[in-house]
Amino acid sequence: MTRTIVYIFIHLTSIILFAQTQNTKVVEGSVSYLSSQNIYVKFNSTEGIESGDTLFIKDKSKFIPAVKVDHKSSTSCAGISITNKKLELNTVLYAFVTTDDGEAESDSIQTTMIEPVVLTTTTTATDIVTTTSLEPIPTLSGKISIQSYSNFTNNQSSYDYQRWRYTFQLNANRIASSGFSYSQYISFAYRADDWNTVSSDPLQALRVYDLAVKYNFNERTLLWLGRHLNNKISNISSIDGLQFETGVNEWSFGAAVGSRPDFNNMEFNSKLFEYGAYINRFDLFANGDMQNTLGYFEQTNDFKTDRRFLYFQHSNSAIQNTRIFLSSEVDLFKKEMGENKTDFSLTSLFTSVNIRPSDLFSIMLSYDARKNVIYYETFKSTLDSIIENETRQGFRTRLTLKPVRNLFFGADYGYRFRKGDLKPSNNYGGYITYSQIPGIETSATVSFNRLSSSYTEGDIWSATLSRPIVFGFDIMLGYRFTNYKFRTGIDDLKQNSASINLNIYLLKPVLMNFTYEGIFEDARTSGRLLANLTYRF
Q: pLDDT digits over 26-62, tens only?
Protein backbone atom coordinates (compact mmCIF):
# COMPACT_ATOMS: atom_id res chain seq x y z
CA MET A 1 0.00 0.00 0.00
CA THR A 2 2.77 2.43 0.97
CA ARG A 3 4.67 1.73 -2.25
CA THR A 4 1.50 2.36 -4.28
CA ILE A 5 0.99 5.73 -2.59
CA VAL A 6 4.64 6.63 -3.25
CA TYR A 7 4.19 5.63 -6.88
CA ILE A 8 1.09 7.80 -7.31
CA PHE A 9 2.78 10.75 -5.59
CA ILE A 10 5.92 10.58 -7.72
CA HIS A 11 3.86 10.03 -10.86
CA LEU A 12 1.71 13.12 -10.20
CA THR A 13 4.77 15.14 -9.27
CA SER A 14 6.44 14.15 -12.54
CA ILE A 15 3.44 15.41 -14.56
CA ILE A 16 3.50 18.76 -12.74
CA LEU A 17 7.24 19.18 -13.20
CA PHE A 18 7.05 18.11 -16.81
CA ALA A 19 4.35 20.71 -17.44
CA GLN A 20 6.71 23.35 -16.07
CA THR A 21 9.34 22.19 -18.61
CA GLN A 22 12.11 22.01 -16.02
CA ASN A 23 15.33 20.16 -16.88
CA THR A 24 17.38 17.76 -14.80
CA LYS A 25 21.14 18.06 -14.90
CA VAL A 26 23.03 14.82 -14.33
CA VAL A 27 26.03 15.36 -12.04
CA GLU A 28 28.53 12.52 -11.97
CA GLY A 29 30.81 11.71 -9.04
CA SER A 30 32.80 8.75 -7.73
CA VAL A 31 33.38 7.08 -4.37
CA SER A 32 36.62 8.45 -2.94
CA TYR A 33 36.63 6.89 0.54
CA LEU A 34 34.74 4.29 2.58
CA SER A 35 34.50 4.38 6.37
CA SER A 36 32.56 2.24 8.81
CA GLN A 37 29.82 4.86 8.92
CA ASN A 38 29.86 6.89 5.71
CA ILE A 39 30.49 6.75 1.98
CA TYR A 40 32.36 9.73 0.55
CA VAL A 41 31.68 10.86 -3.01
CA LYS A 42 33.83 13.33 -4.94
CA PHE A 43 32.27 15.75 -7.48
CA ASN A 44 33.63 18.60 -9.55
CA SER A 45 30.98 20.69 -7.79
CA THR A 46 28.13 19.88 -5.42
CA GLU A 47 26.07 22.94 -6.37
CA GLY A 48 22.41 21.93 -6.37
CA ILE A 49 22.95 18.87 -4.13
CA GLU A 50 21.53 19.25 -0.63
CA SER A 51 21.50 17.22 2.59
CA GLY A 52 18.73 14.65 2.35
CA ASP A 53 19.16 14.18 -1.40
CA THR A 54 19.76 10.76 -2.94
CA LEU A 55 22.71 9.65 -5.08
CA PHE A 56 22.17 6.84 -7.57
CA ILE A 57 24.13 4.05 -9.21
CA LYS A 58 23.30 3.03 -12.76
CA ASP A 59 22.25 -0.49 -13.69
CA LYS A 60 21.89 -0.69 -17.46
CA SER A 61 19.25 1.99 -18.20
CA LYS A 62 17.92 2.29 -14.65
CA PHE A 63 19.07 4.40 -11.73
CA ILE A 64 19.08 2.70 -8.33
CA PRO A 65 19.07 4.73 -5.07
CA ALA A 66 22.44 4.14 -3.39
CA VAL A 67 23.48 6.88 -0.94
CA LYS A 68 21.49 9.35 1.15
CA VAL A 69 23.45 12.61 1.55
CA ASP A 70 24.01 13.70 5.16
CA HIS A 71 26.88 16.18 4.71
CA LYS A 72 28.33 18.18 1.83
CA SER A 73 31.14 20.55 0.96
CA SER A 74 31.84 22.41 -2.25
CA THR A 75 33.20 19.28 -3.95
CA SER A 76 32.29 16.29 -1.75
CA CYS A 77 29.30 14.57 -0.20
CA ALA A 78 29.12 12.04 2.60
CA GLY A 79 26.22 9.82 3.54
CA ILE A 80 24.95 6.36 4.40
CA SER A 81 24.28 3.52 2.00
CA ILE A 82 20.62 2.77 1.25
CA THR A 83 21.26 -0.09 -1.16
CA ASN A 84 22.10 -3.77 -0.71
CA LYS A 85 24.61 -3.53 -3.56
CA LYS A 86 28.27 -3.26 -2.60
CA LEU A 87 29.82 0.17 -3.18
CA GLU A 88 33.58 0.26 -3.73
CA LEU A 89 36.23 2.88 -4.35
CA ASN A 90 35.77 4.69 -7.69
CA THR A 91 32.17 3.47 -8.06
CA VAL A 92 30.37 6.09 -10.19
CA LEU A 93 27.32 7.72 -8.60
CA TYR A 94 24.86 10.19 -10.09
CA ALA A 95 22.98 13.16 -8.67
CA PHE A 96 20.00 14.74 -10.44
CA VAL A 97 19.93 18.50 -10.01
CA THR A 98 16.80 20.33 -11.17
CA THR A 99 17.37 23.59 -13.08
CA ASP A 100 14.98 26.17 -14.45
CA ASP A 101 14.02 26.06 -18.13
CA GLY A 102 16.74 27.53 -20.27
CA GLU A 103 19.44 27.28 -17.60
CA ALA A 104 20.45 23.67 -18.15
CA GLU A 105 23.95 23.12 -19.43
CA SER A 106 24.98 20.84 -22.25
CA ASP A 107 25.26 17.80 -19.96
CA SER A 108 21.63 18.12 -18.81
CA ILE A 109 18.86 15.87 -20.00
CA GLN A 110 15.10 16.17 -20.13
CA THR A 111 13.34 14.39 -17.28
CA THR A 112 11.52 12.26 -19.85
CA MET A 113 14.75 10.35 -20.48
CA ILE A 114 15.02 8.92 -16.95
CA GLU A 115 13.29 5.71 -15.97
CA PRO A 116 13.34 5.35 -12.19
CA VAL A 117 13.93 1.91 -10.75
CA VAL A 118 11.75 2.60 -7.73
CA LEU A 119 8.60 2.38 -9.90
CA THR A 120 7.00 -0.61 -11.58
CA THR A 121 7.75 -1.76 -15.10
CA THR A 122 4.57 -0.10 -16.33
CA THR A 123 5.99 3.41 -15.88
CA THR A 124 5.75 5.72 -18.86
CA ALA A 125 8.23 7.99 -20.51
CA THR A 126 7.09 10.93 -18.41
CA ASP A 127 8.33 9.39 -15.13
CA ILE A 128 10.96 11.45 -13.34
CA VAL A 129 13.73 10.74 -10.89
CA THR A 130 13.86 13.42 -8.23
CA THR A 131 15.84 13.79 -5.05
CA THR A 132 12.70 13.68 -2.94
CA SER A 133 13.21 11.47 0.12
CA LEU A 134 12.45 7.81 -0.60
CA GLU A 135 11.09 5.31 1.89
CA PRO A 136 13.86 3.42 3.71
CA ILE A 137 15.21 0.48 1.74
CA PRO A 138 15.53 -2.69 3.87
CA THR A 139 18.87 -4.47 3.71
CA LEU A 140 19.92 -7.82 5.13
CA SER A 141 23.48 -9.06 5.45
CA GLY A 142 25.29 -11.52 7.64
CA LYS A 143 27.82 -14.28 8.07
CA ILE A 144 27.66 -17.81 9.43
CA SER A 145 30.91 -19.66 10.06
CA ILE A 146 32.14 -22.93 11.53
CA GLN A 147 35.76 -23.27 12.62
CA SER A 148 37.76 -26.21 13.88
CA TYR A 149 41.15 -25.66 15.51
CA SER A 150 43.28 -28.72 16.32
CA ASN A 151 46.56 -28.74 18.16
CA PHE A 152 48.82 -31.79 18.46
CA THR A 153 52.31 -32.32 19.84
CA ASN A 154 54.79 -34.98 20.95
CA ASN A 155 55.63 -32.98 24.09
CA GLN A 156 54.93 -35.14 27.14
CA SER A 157 53.92 -32.11 29.25
CA SER A 158 51.23 -31.09 26.74
CA TYR A 159 48.40 -32.93 25.08
CA ASP A 160 46.40 -32.85 21.89
CA TYR A 161 43.06 -31.06 21.74
CA GLN A 162 40.46 -29.77 19.32
CA ARG A 163 38.44 -26.56 19.61
CA TRP A 164 35.18 -25.76 17.82
CA ARG A 165 33.80 -22.28 17.20
CA TYR A 166 30.47 -21.32 15.61
CA THR A 167 29.62 -17.68 14.83
CA PHE A 168 26.49 -15.99 13.55
CA GLN A 169 26.57 -12.35 12.51
CA LEU A 170 23.42 -10.61 11.25
CA ASN A 171 22.51 -7.05 10.27
CA ALA A 172 18.90 -6.29 9.30
CA ASN A 173 18.45 -2.60 8.54
CA ARG A 174 15.12 -0.83 8.22
CA ILE A 175 13.04 -3.99 8.59
CA ALA A 176 9.97 -3.88 6.31
CA SER A 177 10.90 -0.26 5.44
CA SER A 178 10.24 0.73 9.06
CA GLY A 179 12.45 2.49 11.57
CA PHE A 180 13.49 -0.80 13.20
CA SER A 181 16.88 -2.45 12.67
CA TYR A 182 18.50 -5.47 14.32
CA SER A 183 22.11 -6.58 14.70
CA GLN A 184 23.87 -9.51 16.34
CA TYR A 185 27.30 -11.10 16.61
CA ILE A 186 27.25 -14.33 18.62
CA SER A 187 29.82 -17.09 18.99
CA PHE A 188 29.69 -20.53 20.59
CA ALA A 189 33.12 -22.01 21.30
CA TYR A 190 34.33 -25.01 23.27
CA ARG A 191 37.01 -27.68 23.42
CA ALA A 192 35.93 -31.10 22.29
CA ASP A 193 37.13 -32.77 25.48
CA ASP A 194 34.94 -30.35 27.51
CA TRP A 195 31.75 -31.15 25.64
CA ASN A 196 30.14 -33.13 28.49
CA THR A 197 30.51 -30.09 30.76
CA VAL A 198 29.43 -27.62 28.08
CA SER A 199 26.39 -29.64 27.03
CA SER A 200 25.04 -29.49 30.60
CA ASP A 201 25.49 -25.70 30.69
CA PRO A 202 25.71 -24.29 27.11
CA LEU A 203 25.73 -20.67 28.30
CA GLN A 204 29.31 -21.00 29.55
CA ALA A 205 30.49 -21.44 25.95
CA LEU A 206 28.30 -18.66 24.54
CA ARG A 207 29.79 -15.23 23.80
CA VAL A 208 27.47 -12.39 22.78
CA TYR A 209 29.43 -9.43 21.42
CA ASP A 210 26.48 -7.61 19.86
CA LEU A 211 22.72 -8.14 20.25
CA ALA A 212 20.66 -4.98 19.80
CA VAL A 213 17.53 -3.47 18.32
CA LYS A 214 17.71 0.04 16.86
CA TYR A 215 14.85 2.40 16.10
CA ASN A 216 15.25 5.44 13.85
CA PHE A 217 12.73 8.14 14.77
CA ASN A 218 14.20 10.02 11.81
CA GLU A 219 17.54 10.08 10.01
CA ARG A 220 19.32 11.81 12.92
CA THR A 221 17.47 10.56 16.00
CA LEU A 222 17.81 6.91 17.01
CA LEU A 223 17.71 4.57 19.98
CA TRP A 224 19.58 1.30 20.64
CA LEU A 225 18.33 -1.31 23.10
CA GLY A 226 20.49 -4.30 24.02
CA ARG A 227 24.24 -4.96 23.80
CA HIS A 228 25.74 -2.57 21.28
CA LEU A 229 29.18 -1.23 20.33
CA ASN A 230 28.90 2.43 19.33
CA ASN A 231 31.50 3.49 16.74
CA LYS A 232 31.59 7.03 18.11
CA ILE A 233 32.69 5.74 21.54
CA SER A 234 34.31 2.46 20.52
CA ASN A 235 36.92 2.57 23.31
CA ILE A 236 34.09 2.22 25.84
CA SER A 237 33.42 -1.25 24.39
CA SER A 238 29.98 -2.86 24.28
CA ILE A 239 27.24 -1.51 26.56
CA ASP A 240 24.28 -3.52 27.85
CA GLY A 241 21.38 -1.10 28.07
CA LEU A 242 20.03 1.96 26.27
CA GLN A 243 21.89 4.28 23.91
CA PHE A 244 20.30 7.38 22.43
CA GLU A 245 21.58 9.75 19.76
CA THR A 246 20.23 12.80 17.97
CA GLY A 247 21.75 15.57 15.93
CA VAL A 248 21.40 18.87 14.17
CA ASN A 249 23.56 20.07 11.30
CA GLU A 250 27.18 19.00 11.98
CA TRP A 251 26.53 18.12 15.63
CA SER A 252 25.46 14.83 17.20
CA PHE A 253 24.58 14.28 20.86
CA GLY A 254 24.37 10.93 22.58
CA ALA A 255 23.88 9.31 25.97
CA ALA A 256 24.20 5.75 27.27
CA VAL A 257 23.11 3.97 30.42
CA GLY A 258 23.56 0.30 31.23
CA SER A 259 26.34 -2.01 32.32
CA ARG A 260 29.56 -3.55 31.08
CA PRO A 261 29.72 -7.24 30.12
CA ASP A 262 31.29 -9.49 32.74
CA PHE A 263 35.09 -9.56 32.54
CA ASN A 264 35.33 -13.33 32.73
CA ASN A 265 32.66 -14.64 30.38
CA MET A 266 30.98 -11.68 28.60
CA GLU A 267 27.71 -12.41 30.39
CA PHE A 268 25.32 -9.72 31.63
CA ASN A 269 26.42 -8.23 34.95
CA SER A 270 24.20 -5.50 36.38
CA LYS A 271 26.74 -4.74 39.14
CA LEU A 272 29.06 -3.25 36.51
CA PHE A 273 26.68 -0.32 36.03
CA GLU A 274 27.86 2.59 33.86
CA TYR A 275 26.49 5.74 32.28
CA GLY A 276 27.75 8.62 30.23
CA ALA A 277 27.19 11.09 27.40
CA TYR A 278 29.07 12.34 24.36
CA ILE A 279 29.05 15.09 21.77
CA ASN A 280 30.27 14.62 18.20
CA ARG A 281 30.96 17.06 15.37
CA PHE A 282 31.33 16.00 11.74
CA ASP A 283 32.84 18.42 9.20
CA LEU A 284 33.22 17.76 5.50
CA PHE A 285 35.98 19.44 3.51
CA ALA A 286 37.08 19.41 -0.10
CA ASN A 287 39.61 16.61 0.46
CA GLY A 288 37.89 14.62 3.17
CA ASP A 289 36.27 14.92 6.57
CA MET A 290 37.04 15.61 10.21
CA GLN A 291 35.21 14.03 13.13
CA ASN A 292 35.63 14.80 16.84
CA THR A 293 33.97 13.08 19.78
CA LEU A 294 34.18 14.11 23.44
CA GLY A 295 32.57 11.89 26.05
CA TYR A 296 32.18 11.61 29.81
CA PHE A 297 31.64 8.20 31.44
CA GLU A 298 31.38 6.78 34.93
CA GLN A 299 31.84 3.05 35.48
CA THR A 300 31.05 1.22 38.71
CA ASN A 301 31.84 -2.11 40.34
CA ASP A 302 29.11 -3.37 42.66
CA PHE A 303 27.51 0.05 42.11
CA LYS A 304 30.50 1.85 43.65
CA THR A 305 32.51 4.22 41.48
CA ASP A 306 35.33 2.30 39.86
CA ARG A 307 36.32 4.75 37.15
CA ARG A 308 35.31 8.26 36.05
CA PHE A 309 36.94 9.58 32.90
CA LEU A 310 36.81 11.77 29.79
CA TYR A 311 37.12 10.19 26.36
CA PHE A 312 38.25 12.01 23.22
CA GLN A 313 38.44 10.62 19.69
CA HIS A 314 39.55 12.47 16.56
CA SER A 315 39.69 11.31 12.93
CA ASN A 316 40.77 13.53 10.08
CA SER A 317 41.20 13.13 6.32
CA ALA A 318 40.87 16.86 5.50
CA ILE A 319 44.53 16.99 4.51
CA GLN A 320 44.97 15.54 1.05
CA ASN A 321 46.34 11.96 0.98
CA THR A 322 46.56 11.93 4.79
CA ARG A 323 44.56 10.13 7.43
CA ILE A 324 44.94 11.08 11.11
CA PHE A 325 43.47 9.27 14.10
CA LEU A 326 43.75 9.99 17.82
CA SER A 327 42.03 8.61 20.90
CA SER A 328 42.74 9.39 24.54
CA GLU A 329 41.30 8.90 28.01
CA VAL A 330 41.77 11.17 31.03
CA ASP A 331 40.85 9.71 34.45
CA LEU A 332 39.05 12.03 36.86
CA PHE A 333 38.82 9.69 39.86
CA LYS A 334 41.19 7.64 41.97
CA LYS A 335 41.12 5.84 45.29
CA GLU A 336 44.07 6.05 47.68
CA MET A 337 44.17 4.45 51.12
CA GLY A 338 40.43 3.85 50.92
CA GLU A 339 39.71 7.52 50.23
CA ASN A 340 38.03 8.78 47.03
CA LYS A 341 39.91 11.62 45.31
CA THR A 342 39.50 13.78 42.24
CA ASP A 343 42.23 13.23 39.69
CA PHE A 344 43.22 14.45 36.23
CA SER A 345 45.66 12.04 34.63
CA LEU A 346 46.17 10.85 31.06
CA THR A 347 45.74 7.08 31.22
CA SER A 348 45.40 6.10 27.56
CA LEU A 349 46.66 7.59 24.32
CA PHE A 350 46.87 6.34 20.77
CA THR A 351 47.56 8.35 17.63
CA SER A 352 48.44 7.44 14.06
CA VAL A 353 49.15 9.30 10.84
CA ASN A 354 48.94 7.61 7.45
CA ILE A 355 50.34 9.54 4.48
CA ARG A 356 49.99 8.27 0.93
CA PRO A 357 50.95 10.98 -1.56
CA SER A 358 50.89 8.50 -4.45
CA ASP A 359 50.57 4.80 -5.27
CA LEU A 360 54.38 4.62 -5.20
CA PHE A 361 54.96 5.69 -1.62
CA SER A 362 53.27 5.65 1.79
CA ILE A 363 54.35 6.15 5.38
CA MET A 364 52.69 5.45 8.73
CA LEU A 365 53.62 6.95 12.10
CA SER A 366 51.99 5.94 15.39
CA TYR A 367 52.32 6.22 19.14
CA ASP A 368 50.54 3.77 21.45
CA ALA A 369 50.29 4.20 25.22
CA ARG A 370 47.19 2.08 25.74
CA LYS A 371 47.04 -0.77 28.21
CA ASN A 372 47.60 -4.29 26.98
CA VAL A 373 44.70 -5.80 25.07
CA ILE A 374 42.75 -8.64 26.70
CA TYR A 375 41.40 -11.23 24.25
CA TYR A 376 38.23 -13.13 25.05
CA GLU A 377 39.01 -15.46 22.14
CA THR A 378 42.23 -15.89 20.20
CA PHE A 379 44.10 -18.41 18.05
CA LYS A 380 47.44 -16.70 18.69
CA SER A 381 50.37 -18.93 19.59
CA THR A 382 52.70 -18.20 22.53
CA LEU A 383 55.29 -16.78 20.15
CA ASP A 384 52.74 -14.51 18.45
CA SER A 385 51.60 -13.22 21.85
CA ILE A 386 55.19 -12.47 22.93
CA ILE A 387 55.85 -10.47 19.77
CA GLU A 388 52.61 -8.50 20.10
CA ASN A 389 53.14 -7.65 23.77
CA GLU A 390 56.68 -6.45 23.12
CA THR A 391 55.94 -4.41 19.99
CA ARG A 392 52.43 -2.94 20.22
CA GLN A 393 53.12 -0.08 22.62
CA GLY A 394 55.50 2.82 21.94
CA PHE A 395 56.50 4.57 18.72
CA ARG A 396 56.15 2.83 15.39
CA THR A 397 56.78 3.80 11.80
CA ARG A 398 56.25 1.90 8.57
CA LEU A 399 57.42 2.80 5.07
CA THR A 400 56.12 1.23 1.86
CA LEU A 401 57.59 1.75 -1.62
CA LYS A 402 56.38 0.59 -5.02
CA PRO A 403 59.16 1.50 -7.46
CA VAL A 404 57.73 -0.51 -10.36
CA ARG A 405 54.54 -2.38 -11.05
CA ASN A 406 53.98 -5.44 -8.80
CA LEU A 407 57.15 -4.82 -6.75
CA PHE A 408 56.83 -3.65 -3.14
CA PHE A 409 59.42 -2.80 -0.48
CA GLY A 410 58.52 -2.24 3.15
CA ALA A 411 60.40 -1.33 6.32
CA ASP A 412 59.24 -0.72 9.88
CA TYR A 413 60.75 0.35 13.19
CA GLY A 414 59.38 0.46 16.73
CA TYR A 415 60.69 1.87 20.00
CA ARG A 416 59.31 1.55 23.53
CA PHE A 417 60.62 2.47 26.95
CA ARG A 418 58.30 2.03 29.92
CA LYS A 419 58.83 2.71 33.57
CA GLY A 420 60.30 -0.44 35.09
CA ASP A 421 61.91 -1.70 31.87
CA LEU A 422 65.59 -2.59 32.27
CA LYS A 423 66.31 -1.36 28.76
CA PRO A 424 64.35 0.14 25.84
CA SER A 425 62.59 -2.22 23.47
CA ASN A 426 63.58 -1.93 19.83
CA ASN A 427 62.18 -3.82 16.89
CA TYR A 428 62.78 -3.38 13.21
CA GLY A 429 62.24 -5.31 10.02
CA GLY A 430 61.39 -5.24 6.37
CA TYR A 431 59.93 -7.17 3.48
CA ILE A 432 60.07 -7.51 -0.28
CA THR A 433 57.04 -8.64 -2.28
CA TYR A 434 56.77 -9.36 -5.97
CA SER A 435 53.20 -9.92 -7.09
CA GLN A 436 52.29 -12.01 -10.12
CA ILE A 437 55.77 -13.16 -11.17
CA PRO A 438 55.67 -13.54 -15.00
CA GLY A 439 55.48 -17.10 -16.27
CA ILE A 440 54.41 -18.72 -13.02
CA GLU A 441 51.70 -16.23 -11.88
CA THR A 442 52.97 -16.50 -8.31
CA SER A 443 53.35 -13.86 -5.61
CA ALA A 444 56.42 -14.12 -3.36
CA THR A 445 57.32 -12.35 -0.10
CA VAL A 446 60.49 -12.45 1.98
CA SER A 447 60.53 -10.72 5.37
CA PHE A 448 62.77 -10.17 8.38
CA ASN A 449 62.08 -8.92 11.92
CA ARG A 450 64.37 -8.37 14.89
CA LEU A 451 63.27 -7.70 18.48
CA SER A 452 65.43 -6.61 21.39
CA SER A 453 63.92 -5.90 24.82
CA SER A 454 64.60 -6.38 28.52
CA TYR A 455 62.75 -9.70 28.30
CA THR A 456 63.89 -11.26 25.02
CA GLU A 457 66.10 -10.85 21.99
CA GLY A 458 65.91 -12.58 18.63
CA ASP A 459 64.91 -12.50 15.01
CA ILE A 460 62.47 -14.08 12.58
CA TRP A 461 62.99 -14.83 8.90
CA SER A 462 60.08 -15.87 6.74
CA ALA A 463 59.11 -16.51 3.12
CA THR A 464 55.74 -17.14 1.45
CA LEU A 465 54.56 -18.15 -2.01
CA SER A 466 50.94 -17.84 -3.15
CA ARG A 467 49.14 -18.43 -6.42
CA PRO A 468 45.78 -19.53 -7.82
CA ILE A 469 45.72 -23.21 -8.79
CA VAL A 470 42.55 -23.19 -10.86
CA PHE A 471 39.52 -20.95 -10.76
CA GLY A 472 38.17 -20.90 -7.21
CA PHE A 473 41.27 -22.45 -5.61
CA ASP A 474 44.18 -20.48 -4.09
CA ILE A 475 47.18 -21.94 -2.31
CA MET A 476 49.87 -20.37 -0.11
CA LEU A 477 53.07 -21.99 1.14
CA GLY A 478 55.12 -20.52 3.98
CA TYR A 479 58.34 -21.05 5.89
CA ARG A 480 59.52 -19.31 9.08
CA PHE A 481 62.72 -19.55 11.09
CA THR A 482 62.62 -18.19 14.65
CA ASN A 483 65.58 -17.74 16.98
CA TYR A 484 64.81 -16.13 20.37
CA LYS A 485 66.81 -15.88 23.58
CA PHE A 486 65.15 -15.07 26.91
CA ARG A 487 66.72 -13.35 29.89
CA THR A 488 64.70 -14.89 32.73
CA GLY A 489 66.00 -18.45 32.84
CA ILE A 490 63.64 -19.69 30.12
CA ASP A 491 65.12 -22.02 27.51
CA ASP A 492 66.08 -20.44 24.21
CA LEU A 493 63.56 -20.83 21.41
CA LYS A 494 64.71 -22.04 18.01
CA GLN A 495 61.96 -23.08 15.60
CA ASN A 496 61.50 -24.07 12.01
CA SER A 497 57.91 -23.93 10.85
CA ALA A 498 56.23 -24.75 7.55
CA SER A 499 52.66 -23.91 6.62
CA ILE A 500 50.18 -24.48 3.83
CA ASN A 501 46.95 -22.60 3.28
CA LEU A 502 44.18 -23.51 0.83
CA ASN A 503 41.24 -21.21 0.02
CA ILE A 504 38.25 -22.56 -1.88
CA TYR A 505 35.56 -20.18 -3.11
CA LEU A 506 33.83 -21.97 -5.97
CA LEU A 507 30.43 -20.87 -4.71
CA LYS A 508 30.73 -17.13 -4.27
CA PRO A 509 28.95 -16.68 -0.92
CA VAL A 510 30.70 -19.76 0.51
CA LEU A 511 34.38 -19.79 1.50
CA MET A 512 36.30 -22.82 2.71
CA ASN A 513 39.73 -22.40 4.22
CA PHE A 514 42.24 -24.99 5.44
CA THR A 515 45.51 -24.03 7.14
CA TYR A 516 48.20 -26.33 8.53
CA GLU A 517 51.35 -25.25 10.36
CA GLY A 518 54.03 -27.67 11.49
CA ILE A 519 56.52 -26.46 14.12
CA PHE A 520 59.83 -28.27 14.50
CA GLU A 521 62.24 -27.77 17.41
CA ASP A 522 65.29 -29.72 18.55
CA ALA A 523 63.45 -31.84 21.13
CA ARG A 524 59.80 -31.61 20.12
CA THR A 525 57.42 -31.05 17.26
CA SER A 526 53.89 -29.77 17.15
CA GLY A 527 51.25 -28.86 14.62
CA ARG A 528 48.12 -26.76 14.22
CA LEU A 529 45.25 -27.34 11.81
CA LEU A 530 42.55 -24.77 11.20
CA ALA A 531 39.48 -25.51 9.07
CA ASN A 532 36.93 -22.82 8.32
CA LEU A 533 33.60 -22.78 6.49
CA THR A 534 31.95 -19.38 6.01
CA TYR A 535 28.70 -18.42 4.32
CA ARG A 536 28.00 -14.74 3.63
CA PHE A 537 24.66 -13.32 2.63
A: 888 888 887 767 888 888 888 888 877 888 888 776 7
Q: How far apart are CA 278 and CA 144, in angstroms?
A: 34
Sign of CA dihedral 339, 341, 345, 349: positive
Q: Could you tell me the CA-to-CA distances from 403 to 189, 261, 342, 409 in Å, in that order?
A: 45, 49, 55, 8
Cα–Cα distance measured from residue 353 to residue 318, given in angstroms and rounded to the nearest whole number: 12
Phi/psi region, residue 46 (left: phi>0; alpha: psi -120 to 50; beta: rest), is alpha
CB 402 within 8 A of CB 431: no
**What gap in Å lies between CA 411 and CA 429, rounded to an integer?**
6
CA atoms within 13 A on the CB side of 252: 23
List the beta bridge partners of residue 156: none
What is the H or E stretch that residue 188 is in? strand 180-191
Q: How far apart are CA 466 and CA 482, in angstroms?
A: 21
pTM of structure: 0.70
The Cα 17–Cα 21 span in angstroms is: 7
Per-residue pLDDT of 268-301, as tens digits, reads 999 999 999 999 998 888 778 899 999 999 999 9
